[in-house]
Amino acid sequence: MKIRKLTAVGILMIVLGAIFLYRTELVTFYMNTFLNPNREASIDSSERNEYYTGANYFYVQSTNNFTPTSKQDLKNIYYTVLDSGLDDFTFYCDDNYKDCLKDIKDLSNDQITLSHINNFVHPFNSFKNIETEFDSLGKIVIHVEHTYSDDDIARINRKVDEILTTIPTTDTQEKIRAVHDYLIHSTRYDSERTDHNIVTYESDNAIGPLFQGYGICGGYTDAMAIFLTRFGLPNIKVASENHIWNLVQLNQQWYHLDVTWDDPITTSGIDTIEYSFFLIDASKLDEIDVDQHQHDFDPTVYEEATI
C-alpha cells in the first residue's frame, strides 16, 4: 500500500512538473481551443470603404495575412487596416512569433513610423489618433479615430465637384496645374499656427484650404491628394522632419508636388504663385532644396520618391 502511495505521489509530481514546465504552451492551447477558437482574422471586401486602394509600395504592402510572423507583417496589417477605412480591427499573433508582443508594443508607441504608414493611404482614411490594445495571449486590437468625419467627407466632396466644374481641360497635367493654382490663389499660409501655435483654422487638413482660406503644409497636401485621387492617379504624401508634400505617379514616373512651397509668403503681402515644386523629379528636388533641407525625407520609407 505504501509503495502504491509513493508511486501515485511520484506520478502526481511528474504531472505537476510537466504542467509547470509547459504552462505557457498549455495556457495558449486552452485559450486558442476553448476561449478563442476562431483566431483567423480577415477583412471582407464589403468592409472596405470607397477610398481603399489596395496599393503596394516598397515600404508597406496590402495584405490578406492577418496572423503576423514578423514586424513587416505588422506594418502591413496597420497599413491595410487604415487603407480599408476601418474604425477597429482585431487580429492575433502567430504562436511561433516569439517577439510579436514586443514588436507590437514598439510599433504602437512609434508615432513616427505610424505617421509614415498614414501617408500611404487616402486622406479620408488617415488617422487623427490611433491606439492599440494587446494582451499576453497575443490578441491585438487597433482603434482608429479618423481625421475626417462623414460630414467632413461629404462636404469636401461637394466642394471638389464644384471646383472640377471650373476646369475645362481634359489633359491630366493641366488639371493638376489648375488645382495647384486654385489652392494657392484661395489659400493663405497660416503663419499664426506655425509660428505662434495659435489655432484658429483647420489649416492642417483639407478643410482649411478648401473652406477657410488658410492652410499649412498638411492642409495643402491633403487637399491636393484628394484631387489627385479623383483624377485616378496613384499618389502618396512624403514627410520630412517638419514638412509634408505630395508625390504623384504620371506615365509610370513619380513626381514631387509641393503646393505649400509654391505659395510663398511675401513681405509685401501680395499673392504670388510659383512652379518651382510643380511635378519635379527627385534629382530636381535635390538640386533646388540643397540649402533649405526642408525636403530631406527618409529614402527607406519613401523609396518611390527617389526614383
UniProtKB/TrEMBL annotation:
It holds the Pfam family Transglut_core. One of its GO terms (cellular component) is cytoplasm. InterPro entries: CAP/Cytokinesis_protein, Papain-like_cys_pep_sf, Transglutaminase-like. Residues 168-258 form the Transglutaminase-like domain. It comes from the Bacteria. This is Transglutaminase-like domain-containing protein. The lineage of its organism: Bacteria, Bacillati, Bacillota, Bacillota incertae sedis, Candidatus Faecenecus.
